[in-house]
Amino acid sequence: MKSMLWQPVNINKMEVKNRIVMPPMVTQYGSADGLPTERTRNYYEARAKGGAGLVIVEATMVHKRGHTFINHLSLSDDKAIPAWRQLTEVIHRHGAKAAVQIHHGGRMAKSKLMGMPPVAPSPIPAPGGEMPQELSKEEIKEIVNFFAQAAVRAKQADFDGVEIHAAHAYLIHQFLSASSNKRLDEYGGSVANRARFLIEIIHAIRDAVGNEYPVWCRISAQEYGIAEGITLQESKEIVKLAQEAGIDAVHVSASGPTAPNIQPLPKFTPGVLVNLAEAIKKSTVIPVIAVGKITPELGEKLIKEDKADLIAMGRALFADPDIPNKIAEGRLEDILPCIECFSCRSDLYTPGIVEVRCVVNPAMGKEAEFRIVRAAKPKKVLVIGGGPAGMEAARIAAMRGHAVTLWEKEPRLGGQLTQAATPPYKDRIGAFNQFLQTQLKKLGVTIETKKEATPSAVAEFKPDAAIVATGIKPMVPQIPGIEKANVVHAGDVLEGKAKVGKKVIVIGGEMVGCETAEFLADKGKKVTVTRRGPEMALGVTVTLRGFLLSRLEKKGVTLLPGVRYEEITPHGLVVTTKEGEKKTIEADTIVLAAGSTPNQELYNALKDKVPEVYLIGDCAKPRTLREALTEGQRTGLAI
Questions:
Q1: Are residues 590 and 601 in the same domain?
Q2: Is residue 247 included in any domain, yes or no?
Q3: C or N: which end of the chain has fewer Cβ atoms within 10 Å?
Q4: Which candidate in 44, 170, 213, 614 is catalytic?
Q5: What is the mean pLDDT of the chain?
Q6: Is 170 tagged catalytic?
Q7: Do residue 170 and residue 204 come from a single domain?
C-alpha cells in the first residue's frame, strides 16, 4: 500500500503531489530592497528538489510599514514581479507547488527599518518592543487593500497560492488576540469583531484573485503563557468565520513565550502541536496543515487517522532539504536530524547576524558554495580525530569519492558530542552523533578506534592528505590549592568517568558548566556554579539562555558570577563575591568547566611532512559545533 504521505491532495484547484509541506520560515536571504536573490532561489530550489509537495515562501511584507526583518522579502511593488517569477520557476522545476506567505509585522515591525513608528490595533507594545500607533479605521482599510494587492502580485508571479499570515504575534494575530486588541469599535471585543480584519482581508483577496485561486491562512490556534491570549475554542470560531469568507485550508501553529514548538523540552517530543491541528480538523471541512516537530512516522499516522491533511516540516527541512525523497526511498537512517538547538531562531533576534543558519547543515543558504562534486582525482585521506569536525570532514570527503580512513584514540567515536548529548534537553545531539557514524559506515570509511596517531604512524600510513581534528585540552585555572583538591573535569563527569560527591562546585559558567550543573542537580547533588565573568551563560543563544537559567534556579542550583577565586581548601572553595564578601563554599568535589586550549601538537609535527594537512575544529580554536561542522564540510570539499 502506498504511503499516505505520498497521496496527492487538493487545496482548491491546486493538486499537491504529496502531503509534505515546507512551511514559511524567515531566512533573511533577500536583497536590501526585498527582492529574492540567487541565494534565495538556491535555498528554495534545494527544498523543492528534495521532494516537498508544497513550498511556502517565508513571510513577505505587503507594505513597507510592516517591515520586520533585515532583508525582509516584499510583494509591495509591481516592479518586484519579474524577480519573484524567477523564484517560482525554480520551485516548479522540481514538481513542487509554490505559495507565498503574505505578512504585515504590525507592532513587531521595526521603526529603524521603516523610518516610521510601527502600527497595531491598540497602542500596546510587544514585550520589550516599541510603542505602536493605533490604527485608524481608514488605515485598516488601506492595509486590507495592501494584502489584496500583494495576492494579485503573487498570482502574476506564478505562485500557485497564497497563505495569509495570521499567526505568531504579527498584525493580524494582534487583532485576533484580546491581549493585544483593546479596541472599542467593531474591530475589538468579541471574537467575531477581533476576526473582522482577517475576514475583510480574505474577502478583498477573493475579490482580487477570484474563487479558484488557492488562499488559506496560518493561525496560532493557541497562545501559551499570555494573559487573555487566544484560546483553542476561539480559534475554532475564527476558522469557521474564515472558512465562510472563502479560505481553502488552514495551517495550524501556536505562539507565546511558553509554546511547546518554540521552547526546549527534556526529551525530543514529536508532534507538540498535533492536538491543536486535530481539534481544528474536527471543526472544519477544509484541509488542515499540521506542524510542530512532526516525524515521518507520526505524519503518516496523522493522515491515516484523519487528524490532518498535510504535514509541515520546518526546522527539519533547514537541517535536511532531502527529507521527503529519503522518506519515499525508505532511507530514514539517512535523514540529517535537527538537533533542537534553536540557533536558527536565535539568529533572527541576535544583533549583528543578518542571516538564518543551521548548525548541523552549513550548506543551508550557501547551497552553491557547499555543493558536493565528485573529486577529479580521488586521494588517500587520513582523518585524525572522531569528533564532529573529523567525522563531518570524513563524510564529505568520502561522498566525493576519496578513500578515507579515520583514527580515533578513544574506544568510541563522537568526541565532545558524547558529552554534549548527556545533559537533559540535549538528546538530539545523540541522534546527530548516530547519524554521522551511520553515514561513515555506509560510505565505506575505514574506522579505527583506540588508535593513537603519532607522526611515525602517519608517515607509515602515507596519506595524500591528513585532516587533524584532535580537539582540546581542558584548561585548569590557576587557583591556589587546586592540586590538592578532589578536582574532576566536566567532560569526565558527563561521560561517567568521574564520580562526584553530594556537594559540588562547578567552576565555569558558560554552556558546559551550566549544563553539567543541571545534569548533577537532576541527580540530587547540591550544586554551585561560579565564574569570574559578570553573567552566566552569555554564550548560550538568546532563545535558550532564559530557559536554561530558569531551570537551574528552579532546581536549586546556586549561581555566583563575578567572583574572584582566592584558594581551594579541604573544606571547599574560597571566593570573594562581586559584592566584596569573602566566603567559603563548601564542596567535596570541584568540577572544572573553565574552558580549554587547542591540542595542536600533532598538527605541528605533520604540517611539513604530508602533502596536504588541514587543522579543523576545536584543535584550531575552541568554538562551537557550528564552526566544527562548517570547517569539516569545507575541508572535505577542498581536498
A1: no
A2: yes
A3: N
A4: 170
A5: 96
A6: yes
A7: yes
